[in-house]
Design goal:
This protein has three domains: 163 residues, no CATH class; 218 residues, Rossmann fold; 100 residues, no CATH class. By secondary structure, the chain is of the alpha/beta class. The strands form four sheets. An eleven-stranded mixed sheet has the order 14-13-25-24-23-15-22-21-16-20-17, sandwiched between helices. Strands 1, 3, 4, 5, 6, 7, 8, 9, 10 and 11 form a ten-stranded mixed sheet that branches. The two termini are 56 Å apart. The chain has 19 helices and 25 strands. Helix 14 links the parallel strand 21 and strand 22. The C terminus is likely disordered.
Amino acid sequence: MEERVKELHIYSEKVGSDAFRNLFEHLTKRKVPLFGFLDLSYFFSITPAPVIVQRQKNTLKFYIKDRKNLAHLPHLIFPFKLSDNPVKIERKRGSYLPFPNLYFFGPENLLNFMIKADVEEFSCRIVRIFGKYLGFANATESGGKKNLILLSSPENFLEINLENHPSIYIDVLEPIPKSISLNSQFPVFENVDACVGMDSFESINHTLIVGESGCGKTKALYMMVRALEKKYGNELRVLVIDPHGEFLKLMPNKKIVDYKKNYVEPLEMGGDKSPMMTQLIAQLISSAIGEENKYAERVLFYATYLLSSIDRLTLENINALLRDPAARMEFCTQSTVDEAKRFFDQEYQDIYIHHFNDAVLPILNFVGEYELYLGKKLKQEKLHELLENNRVTVVSFDPQFFGKRMIKFLAGAVINQMYICAITGKFKRPIILVVDEFPRVETLVVKDILAETRKFNLYLYLSMQYLGQLKKEILNGIISNTRNIISFKVNREDARLISSIIEIKIEEFFKKNRSTTELEESKREMFVRLDQRECIVRLFDGTKYILPMKLKAVDVQKWMYPEDLPPPSPSYPPYSKGEIKKEERKEKVSGERGREKKKEKEEPKGSFGEFSPLH
């Protein structure tokens, strides 16, 4: 026989009589006393649902039969926790015949009794009479015999102390963060107490999203982008850098730059010719090439400086400057930067002869790779115009088409340009720069964005699998400047770091029952044991940090654009039994006729085949 129940979990290996008495009180007590002060349940009341304990070998599980009036219990019965969703369990069958055993227990213990009597299921109703609790129970042995039990002190009988029963296993929940009530009209994350959307905290601020592959991180980031768009409308712009091509699938109807049909010129500087901008571009190319060579860095710096001074800075022109003496002479003649001209007149020839393989060839090879991907004529997009004309722009890369090095360079170029636009005052409204799988496109300019650009209307949303993948200076920038942290399941190394950043508050019960070292380890384990879509968040409300909470991302389909939702499965009107039989007969007759016609075509008349009339 199946029964609908809610599982009763525990948070400690020791659960005393006081905790069970509190549980019984809330199971039996009236919601509101009569006349506001007279609680008749003190004189007589009975639990609306029995407490059920099932044993399978050495494993015990506790349940309470599901009832509507259990909805108010979760916040009142700590250190117990009722499961959020009901489950169905198979009840143990048994019989009282011929005669049941009758037990009367005072100081006995449930765990001892279930082991000694080989009990597989224990079911108990609690009755309150003049403030005292009595228990009326039945116990079903493994052989199927049922026994009756009267408990004079059920709170003592049900006490749990797993130290005294090392052979018994009961699943003990880890400590949980305290939670507060939050409401949102359009939630992205939720739990029993809180609905958290982008209107619940200061969402226009630097934000970190971290979690292992498959935990729901990218879909949560997508929902956050959708919620930002819904909340702020035209007041905000979002640019998504998508190195894995996932946002292209989730947002196919948004403005897309995919570097197959259109592109953003990677060395565009918005007319700024300062040495700092030149240094940024030289660093970007050097990082993409992966060559740490002082001569290569010097060549790149002077090449970008010279070409930017004459508004001719492209990778094709860098290639011509380094390879073609005639083009080099032409560029030097047009430039007014004496130091750059001196370098190419005097130093470059020596570097070309003696350090060509280390300093020049890697640059030429990289430019050749770029031209292989983007040599054909594509539509050029201006980054500032994209942001001005579109609420959400997705810069997406197909990892099956572009190499890792090229994705890192092109995405890094967009991040560079966003930084340049910000510090030159081009952003008149807030801009959110979302970078999915940030380690794939890691660039040092991010630490400057984190430190400097809030006052220039540019904010970062960084998503990644592992914090340990990052360079130390970037990681330090994230720790120092990120206001909002959303952590899905992570490894233990990252859990140690994140738990040291997020000050998790836990229930006082755990502080009394665990040492400081155990509590710190439990906090780290919270991040390691998260299920899919579950996360621990620390959010900033504009003046202070909101209490860190454990939440779960809502179903992504709630936030998908109507045109992007999968088509609904076809539904058919229900048939009556007579109609079903009629349809079956039609299908059977039409099927037989079809097979006969097919056979007639395949076999000539008079054939001695299996279906021939002469057979």
